[in-house]
Each structure stands twice: as structure tokens, then as C-alpha cells.
């Protein structure tokens, strides 16, 4: 009902031709028939036709223009079918009421960047024919234990509504959501045509839940579990896939840290002719990998599991399989990962595929520069490279020398501590900047850095869209000059005109934020930790970055005055996170009162009472729903 | 004891915290970090800190030496990734995955993977097969009876110990390398030749 009122209001504001529904006879029925596309959706039909009051006059001129407008709307719906980008669709829906309606009926992919911004019912009410849902829950800093467990982002309420509203649902993508086995059971039972399940950084369920998916989703093409925690319920989920040929195209379970039934897996792979992506967990030994590769030479993406011998002693006389031949047989392989407990002796087996690789993930492999070099020198087409800093600056130099097509680089620390001598430094960064000129995205953990190297990257890598530098020692300055890292990051925002995501670190003064505010006009995501001198830092950013959507700050001296300076912008943002800063409860309260459509959450760590003046964590986000009803005790929502 | 009082050991005691303060148990205050360059400028609000190892009230993700503090969630690595690497490191350190085995008189050394054996008899049998010898009976009081050869190992402290004295779990975490000693040298270890 409320939705109909909104429609009515829109029609009164609309100067253009009145909505199709007002015209007599033929038009509404045409609408209804077309909108249904074979399904009996009389419900949605009625919302567009009978609810408009007859009080809006229909003039002669409007009657004469009926047919051209009718045609226009038919054309519109057909054209909108092809609009896939959600930003384009959002824009189209704002043109006028009939465009809004047509867009709502033709949107098949629903993207919800914050599961609390809108309720499942509201989403269902507007979008009637959805085949694919993307839902994101917790903010990113929850990954680093900055948020107590059981904060929220439950999939339960969503899956219940989806089950009722979209029987034809095919795809679900969840990121940082809390999912139970029961949720997965309901999902598996509710959608007979369900095809793709992707869970990224989720938790709350176990192999029990996977068993439901495997056994009940007969049309399943994709089951991708990425950096998701799965508890070991000791259920043999792999053996529960249906007998006979499967539709499986992608099976990614490298993060599922439970032993699996290898015989069942082997049989599954053997009866999955469409399988292109397979990423194994570390419980699959290299011998077992061999057997799978032999059965699936058509693979394009392979996660190699342990990539070492199993712990069971081999029988005497067992010959080593010909791993090189197995790799050579995989002519379509473009993406290689895994190597979870690598025995470097086996590394040479991958040489046959190096020339075709576009993506190589060594981020769990403690290999040295010398072990990397013979591999990387063949990887001329490599676009994505993830590694541990065990490869040292020397390894990065080798990458820079060969991988001219590199778009994305991530270097993770073997030793995630602050004080140790780091194996990668400004030397590696400089080399990469000189060798990989097409670089678009970089995540680089190091112990020391210089402004000069960062400036070099800013002028060499003009395609950069994502620049995330993590100098692990807090407040660490340029180790050559002793100066803050302001100039380096300043150069990045100034020179990299395509930059949309930035993470800063090291010793930074307000000046760095001044640069960000002045030049970072396209920045959508900004991560700040242990940086800045005063409120001015945050003010520069909030006042200067019009595209800012996601701002996450920790341990920086920004207070209430800075928070106030963003009032003009918070409705345009997905969220703001500030932990261990200098915000007071009153300061946060002011924001809550000034902005009714903002949910302002103050989060304490577990049950500790707030003894400080300062708020431990502020997490605030725009929402159409007001305060959520599932907030745990340690969350206070300010009004 | 009077002697210790005179030395005023407490004043010279190495501990974390500013002079004159007790070791803080709070995990809301950040403790002075020796590694922050501008310690005085560290003005941000309560930094969540895991209390040091001796005062741990929360479980720590990694065991840290008592002199370091660790801040929650820093560096920003997902626990999944941290745990994978940590597991590998402690596996490598604890079990010394592959240990060298030398046999007196043999021309070259071997390497074995300690983890694949579940107790001493299995290990000894494997050594016997590998080097073609017999160890004889083990007894606590007399060591290995009835054989020329005695299995020994070097532990974490660098001492050479008789294989079999400590519980198996302790053995595999402390064993750095193995050496099968010949009778004449092994006399001190209780080999009755």
C-alpha cells in the first residue's frame, strides 16, 4: 500500500505524459501480459494499474498521444532488459515513474552493499523478478578482530524472504555475512533452479550446511567458498553430490580446512565434464592432485591444495607420478593457486603452464627468490600475482623484469609482526613501478618504505586504481629521510588520476590528508590507521572527496568536530567506521539526531563497560529502515 | 632475602611500562611501544592492546615474547591467513619436519620425517631398516641392551640425549637431529657391550 502511495505522489509530480495505467482499456492489459512473461504475476500487475486514482484528468491530447507513449514504454522495458550495470539502472529509475516501474520489473540482479541499509521486504516489494542476489554484511575491519563476534549480518532473515519471493532465484553471492546450516538448508530446498553459490569471508556454518547444498541443488554450477570459515561437522559433503553427470563448472573449497573423502572427490571430478575451476584444500596431497588433474585436463583455474607429499609414508617402490606431464596436459590453465604446504622440489612441474598463466597465487607458499625465478621468468602473460614477502626484493625484481602485463600485485608478510627485519622494502616497490607500467592494483606489506619509491610508483604507474600500502610498524617514517610519508601518498593522489581506493600507513601528518582531500576526487574507499595529527585531517577528507563511499579509520586522533564536518556527505556514503579515535558519545549523538536516516552504532568490545570518555567504535551507515532489531547487547544505536 | 633487597632488583627489573607504574592489565590503554618513533605524539584514544604474555587475559593469536605488545588487528591480515602461516611456522619449528639422521660409519646422512611415526618402536624400526642394524632392548636404567648401536638425538639446547627417555610428544618437538652412535662411543650412555 505504501508503495502505491509513493507511485501516486510521483505521478503528481510528473510533468511528462501521465502514466500508461490511466489510459483506458487495452494498455493496462498489455502491460500485465508482458510483465508476466509467462508467469502469473497478477499481483504485480495490479500494483501498476488499478491503484492509480482516476482523479488525474485524461485530456484529449493525452488520448491522442496514447499509442506513441505505449510504444515508448514497451520499447523502454525491452531496452532496459539489456541494462546490466546497476549504476545505469539506478539512474534510469530516477527519470520518471514509468521508467522507475519498468526498471524495477526488469532488474534481475539485486546488489545490496549493506544488508542493513534496506530490509528484505522492501527489496522484495520493489523488485519482483530477481534471479541473482549480492549481499554484503559486516564492514571490512571486522576481518581483523576489531568487531566482537555475533554483531549481526545474518543471512537468515534474507533467505526466508528470498525463498518466498523469488522461486526462480539462481545465484547468491554473500560477503561477510553470518550464515547458519539452516539457512543453507532453506536455500537448497527453496530454489529448484539454483545455480551459483559464492560465499566470501562468511562464517557460522559447517560441512553440514555444505551437505545440504551438494545434495539438493541439482542444477548447481558454482560452489565457491573463498576465505570463509567452515566448521568441521565431520560430514562427507563431497560424496553427497548427485550421481551421474553434474553441471558443476566451479568448485572452490581451498578455505575449508577439513579432511575430505578423496575417492568421492575423484569420482565427482570424473563425472563433471563442465568443470573449469577447481581449488582444493591443503588436505589434498600432490599425488592426489595428480589423479585429479589427469581426470580434468580441461581446467582453467586450479588450486593445487597442499602441493606436497601427504604425511602418510609412501610404500617402497611407488614411483612418483609425472607431474610435469599432468601440467602439460592442462592446455587451458590460466590461473594457478594453492601451494598450501609447498615442497619446493615440485615447483618445476608447473613450468609447462607458465607461459599461459594470467593469474598466479603464491601467497601461501614460503618460497625464496631463487625458487621463484625459474617460474616467473616464463610468466610473460601474468596479470595477477600474489606472493609472500619470502620472495624478497630480489623476487620482486624478477617479477618486474618479466611480467609486463601485470595488473594486480599483492605481497603478504610471512611474519605479521611490527618489529622484524622485513624482506621486502622500497627496493621491491621501485622495481615493480619501473617494470610493470600497467599496474592497476597493489597491496604491499613491508617494514620500511621511502617517499621516493612511492613517488616513483605514482609517476610510473598511471593506471593505478587501487593503492594499498601497509608499512607494518606504526607511525614509521621514511626510513631514508626520517620524514613523514606525506609526500609519497600525496604524489599518489595527485598523479594517479584513476585512483578509487587508497589505504595509507606509516607516519602521516594532516598534510597527507590535505593532499587526499585536494586531489583524491575519485576515491571511493579510504583506509586510515594510526595517522594524522588533528581533526583537520579528517575534515580535509570529508570536505574534499565527493565520491567517498567507504571510510574506515582506526587509532587516529580525529574527534567530534571532524565528525561534524561530514554531515553534508554521510547520506552519500555506504558507511563510516571509526575505532579508537577521539569521538565522544555526545558527538556521535549529535550526528544521530541531525541525520534521521543514518544508523549510528556505538560498539563496545564485548561486555566491557565504557569507562573512557571516548567511544571505542563508531559504525554508521545510511538505512531506510531505522535501527535494526537484531543488535546484540554490546551495540548501542544512538537516536 | 636481605641480599636481594640490597641489590634493589626491582628497580632494575626489565619490564614493560613507564617507571613507577605497575604492569598494566588494561587492554584499553596502549602501552608505550618502544618502536614508535614519536612516542610523545601518540595521542590517539584507547588503542586496543593485547596484554603481554605474562598477563594474558585474552587468548592471543600468536605467542609473543613478553617484551612486545601487539595491537588488535594490526597489521591488517585476516586471521585465516595468519593462522595458515602460523600453523606452518609452528609445525616447522615444533616437529622439525625433516630431521637429519647420521650413522657412525655410514658414508652419507639420511633425512626422516618425524611426524609420520607415532611412537618410538615405529621410529626405531624405521631406523633399523634404513641403516641395517639392530638397537636392542630399551630400559630406563640401562639404556639399550644387547646391541652395538645406540640411537641418540640432539635436543633444542644442543645436548645429546638418549632416544626413549622422554615421552614421544616431547621428543618430536625437541629433536633437532638424530645420530646412531656406535658401541665404543656410547659406553657412557649405558650400552652394555
Automatic annotation (TrEMBL), chain A:
Highest taxon of source: Eukaryota
This protein's name: Transport inhibitor response 1-like protein
Protein's organism: Citrus sinensis
TrEMBL record, chain B:
Subcellular localization, as worded in the UniProt entry: Nucleus
One Gene Ontology biological process: regulation of DNA-templated transcription
Organism of derivation: Citrus sinensis (Sweet orange)
Function: Aux/IAA proteins are short-lived transcriptional factors that function as repressors of early auxin response genes at low auxin concentrations.
Listed name of the protein: Auxin-responsive protein
UniProt key word Nucleus: yes
InterPro entries per the UniProt record, alphabetical: AUX/IAA_dom, AUX_IAA, PB1-like
Region described as Disordered: spans on this chain: 1-74
